[in-house]
From TrEMBL:
<keyword id="KW-0808">Transferase</keyword>
<protein>
    <recommendedName>
        <fullName>N-acetyltransferase domain-containing protein</fullName>
    </recommendedName>
</protein>
<keyword id="KW-0012">Acyltransferase</keyword>
<dbReference type="InterPro" id="IPR050832">
    <property type="entry name" value="Bact_Acetyltransf"/>
</dbReference>
<feature type="domain" description="N-acetyltransferase">
    <location>
        <begin position="196"/>
        <end position="334"/>
    </location>
</feature>
<dbReference type="InterPro" id="IPR000182">
    <property type="entry name" value="GNAT_dom"/>
</dbReference>
<dbReference type="Pfam" id="PF00583">
    <property type="entry name" value="Acetyltransf_1"/>
</dbReference>
<dbReference type="InterPro" id="IPR016181">
    <property type="entry name" value="Acyl_CoA_acyltransferase"/>
</dbReference>
<feature type="domain" description="N-acetyltransferase">
    <location>
        <begin position="1"/>
        <end position="166"/>
    </location>
</feature>
<dbReference type="GO" id="GO:0016747">
    <property type="term" value="F:acyltransferase activity, transferring groups other than amino-acyl groups"/>
</dbReference>
Length: 334
């Protein structure tokens, strides 16, 4: 097996790349794993933004000239310039032949060329395999160690209106002067500066274990570029924000691909100075109502939270999210 150039503009190569990712994540006994649609993946690989660039790495069988392994690096371009989020995938029936190790070598080569010294990855593990997963054993052989533990929880839709009303009423009792607003697609221009200021805090506020991170550096212009890409790849954002004196002090965002039947939680954050008002619960309810109104066809919402994030876990479980997998964050230092 060998690493050869991967052309993200070649439709046939991208389709095969996506097939490998999809089968590796969905067809080895872990059907709950999230994965991009082909439309999303194509756009992400082909359309770098000022915030982020995704580099594909492919392994090929020289005897057949067939792609047999797919991997990528997600490179932040504004902040956390020492890090890369990486992924390596091999279809279930082709595992055990060294393809994954070849992919990791190719990923490491790209990471070194980009000046990245911290590689981060995630893997969905069944609870019963938490201590004995062959995925974790393989990752350890590639030099990765567990740096944080998250739990994937899924919410089956629709959520009963009665439950949403109950949680909304509980939150209303502590909400005070905060205003909740919800949007499909782009946020209004006037909210972007304070939304960016808050969202740039996300990596510092979320429990990250031993993962080394710094604050984000995105601007309103970067958010608009992200909006353009989302529209191009058929992804719709559902966002709810809490405002005080016209400034965003809390937000919650869901992303849904055009051809997907699942929604993905992108993030929920309340500014530290504004906690204790049940804003997280209020925003989650507002977003679920918005989502179910506009996409009644969806089957579930997928989220992950650090195992130690008791506050967010409690909100999610109150709304009906149920744990389905352990998701370790794996770290390798170059």
């Amino acid at each position: 097996m060998e690493i050869r150039p991967f052309d993200p503009r070649d439709d046939q190569q991208v389709r095969r790349f996506h097939e490998i990712l999809w089968r590796a994540e969905k067809e080895d006994g872990r059907p709950w794993n999230p994965m991009w649609t082909l439309e999303e993946l194509s756009g992400i690989l082909r359309e770098p933004t000022r915030e982020r660039r995704t580099v594909g790495v492919a392994a090929w069988d020289p005897a057949t000239s067939r792609m047999v392994g797919a991997g990528f690096l997600m490179l932040g371009l504004l902040d956390n310039l020492d890090s890369a989020w990486v992924f390596a995938a091999v279809e279930p029936e082709l595992r055990g032949r060294g393809i994954g190790a070849v992919l990791v070598d190719g990923i490491v080569e790209v990471a070194r060329a980009e000046g990245r010294t911290q590689l981060l990855a995630g893997a969905g593990i069944p609870f019963e395999d938490r201590e004995s997963s062959p995925i974790l054993a393989w990752a350890a052989r590639q030099g990765f160690r567990t740096a944080n533990i998250e739990i994937q929880r899924n919410l089956e839709l629709p959520v009963a209106a009665e439950l949403l009303d109950e949680v909304a009423e509980e939150a209303e009792q502590k909400r005070g002067d905060y205003e909740v607003r919800s949007f499909v697609g782009r946020l209004p221009d006037e909210l972007l500066p304070s939304w960016c200021e808050l969202n740039n805090m996300f990596m510092l506020e979320a429990p990250m274990g031993e993962v080394e991170v710094e604050a984000g550096a995105s601007t309103p212009e970067d958010v608009r570029e992200r909006d353009d890409l989302n529209e191009k790849i058929g992804r719709t954002m559902f966002s709810s924000v809490a405002l005080l004196d016209g400034r965003v002090v809390a937000h919650s965002d869901l992303g849904v691909a055009r051809d997907d039947d699942e929604a993905h939680q992108w993030g929920t954050l309340v500014h530290p100075d504004h906690r204790g008002h049940r804003l997280g619960a209020a925003l989650k309810v507002a977003n679920l109502r918005l989502l179910q109104e506009h996409r009644p066809d969806l089957r579930r919402v997928i989220t992950t939270n650090a195992e130690t994030n008791a506050w967010m876990v409690a909100i999610n479980e109150r709304l009906g999210f149920r744990p389905v997998a352990v998701v370790p964050t794996l770290r390798r230092t170059l």
